[in-house]
């Protein structure tokens, strides 16, 4: 997409708006057959009740989306850091646009297919939190950079061998603009990244000697070192961030870089990232957070580990995603089977949390929600959830159960079109929008 088509938000508004003209049909899970042939805009304009949609179902909450987007934007601005949220969480251009419109510096992505989606929607500033080695992908990237002088791109690199492979592919592609790269610092037991400062400095030297690449700074991911917020894990994160800050200082001593970048920060320890790295912004360094899950948040992993939940300032996030499933069987006392499973809902960071039962229409009226106190989901099959109940009572066959979910990154990839409701906890939620994803 020519850069001239991008709006002030740094994304092509025309392309994003066009998603609302997509016609609904059998490809879209939970969309009723009565809506087939209508566009997304036509269907949502009449604010259909959620009860018109089938189950299993994933929804987003409009109020929570707006709240979370604004909270993180405000917090980053007050902290003096930039935000390039990880777009892989949602792979939804309409949600990316909200983040960019709220002040996000750019987007972070994880692989080549995701980069291509972002460029198809005209995103101006992209960071690949990974090393791009694929020759065909590098040829495409070189073409994008050469045809669009306003396209800003950062890639990571963690070995001289990677530098050599990138250089060879870019030379073969006839690249004219150098690709800006960040030296990635890792840690023992972590994921990718140089394990020592000595290795990182050798990578920087290799980059400086290569005309197709340009050294832009350092990057890393502290979240690979901790899966909980215990004192021990937080100390490990702190030690790593100080090493990252030290490497940044060494590179600044050795090389002159205009607007150097130092980037870290998932959605679990961004408070520590700001504590350690934000002071670097006073010397012209761009300190960039990459938190992505905050926009959706959850009722599981991030609810427990988010810095805001741990008292990092007077802020809070709300879960914007919910699952909905129907009771299809009551084969034993204290057991209900729901029609949603691993193909529909995330389960890698905790099983769905039963929150309320919405009664089927009885006597022509819809019954109010009842909390599911003491109930829990104990297992998921491909298409079923096992809901264990504290006694023989509970939801009846045909009732709808609202579920809290954990880990948005493995929720969105199961849905190509996600309804947005006005209020997931209302007695009768209505659909106000639909979000298209690209996985």
From TrEMBL:
Region (Disordered): 348-372
SMART domains, per database record: D-ser_dehydrat (SM01119)
Secretion signal, residue range per the UniProt entry: none
Domain annotation D-serine dehydratase-like: ranges: 320-422
InterPro entries found in the cross-reference section: D-amino_acid_metab_enzyme, D-ser_dehydrat-like_dom, D-ser_dehydrat-like_sf, PLP-binding_barrel
Domain of life of the organism encoding this protein: Bacteria
PANTHER family tied to this protein: D-SERINE DEAMINASE, ZGC:162816-RELATED
Name assigned to this protein: D-serine deaminase-like pyridoxal phosphate-dependent protein
Protein species of origin: Allostreptomyces psammosilenae
């Amino acid at each position: 997409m020519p850069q001239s088509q991008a709006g002030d938000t740094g994304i092509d508004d025309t392309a994003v708006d066009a998603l609302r003209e997509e016609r609904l049909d059998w490809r879209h899970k939970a969309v009723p057959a009565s809506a087939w042939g209508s566009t997304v805009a036509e269907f949502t304009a009449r604010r259909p009740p959620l009860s018109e949609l089938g189950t299993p179902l994933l929804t987003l909450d409009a109020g929570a989306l707006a709240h979370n987007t604004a909270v993180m934007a405000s917090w980053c601005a007050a902290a003096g850091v930039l935000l390039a949220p990880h777009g892989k969480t949602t792979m939804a251009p309409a949600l990316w646009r909200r983040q960019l419109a709220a002040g996000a510096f750019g987007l972070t992505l994880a692989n080549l297919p995701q980069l291509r989606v972002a460029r198809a929607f005209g995103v101006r500033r992209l960071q690949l939190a990974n090393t791009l080695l694929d020759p065909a992908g590098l040829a495409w990237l070189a073409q994008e950079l050469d045809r669009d002088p306003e396209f800003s791109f950062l890639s990571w690199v963690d070995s001289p061998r990677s530098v050599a492979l990138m250089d060879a592919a870019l030379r073969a592609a006839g690249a004219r603009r150098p690709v800006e790269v960040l030296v990635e610092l890792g840690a023992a037991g972590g994921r990718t990244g140089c394990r020592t400062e000595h290795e990182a400095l050798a990578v920087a030297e290799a980059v400086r000697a290569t005309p197709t690449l340009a050294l832009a700074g350092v990057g890393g991911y502290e979240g690979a070192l901790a899966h909980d917020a215990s004192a021990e894990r937080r100390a490990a994160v702190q030690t790593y961030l100080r090493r990252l800050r030290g490497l940044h200082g060494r590179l600044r001593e050795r090389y002159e870089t205009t607007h150097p970048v130092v980037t870290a920060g998932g959605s679990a320890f961004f408070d520590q990232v700001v504590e350690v790295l934000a002071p670097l912004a006073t010397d012209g360094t761009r300190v960039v957070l990459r938190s992505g899950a905050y926009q959706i948040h959850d009722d599981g992993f991030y609810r427990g580990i988010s810095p805001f939940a741990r008292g990092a300032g007077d802020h809070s996030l709300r879960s914007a995603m919910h699952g909905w499933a129907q009771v299809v069987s009551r084969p034993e006392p204290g057991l209900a089977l729901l029609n949603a499973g691993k193909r529909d809902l995330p389960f890698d960071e905790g099983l769905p949390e039963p929150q309320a039962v919405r009664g089927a229409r009885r006597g022509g009226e819809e019954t109010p929600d009842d909390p599911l106190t003491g109930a829990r989901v104990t297992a998921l099959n491909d298409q079923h959830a096992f809901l264990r109940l504290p006694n023989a009572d509970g939801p009846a066959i045909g009732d709808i159960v609202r579920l809290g979910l954990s880990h948005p990154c493995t929720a969105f990839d199961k849905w190509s079109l996600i309804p947005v409701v006005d209020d997931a906890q209302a007695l009768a939620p209505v659909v106000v929008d639909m979000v298209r994803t690209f996985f």
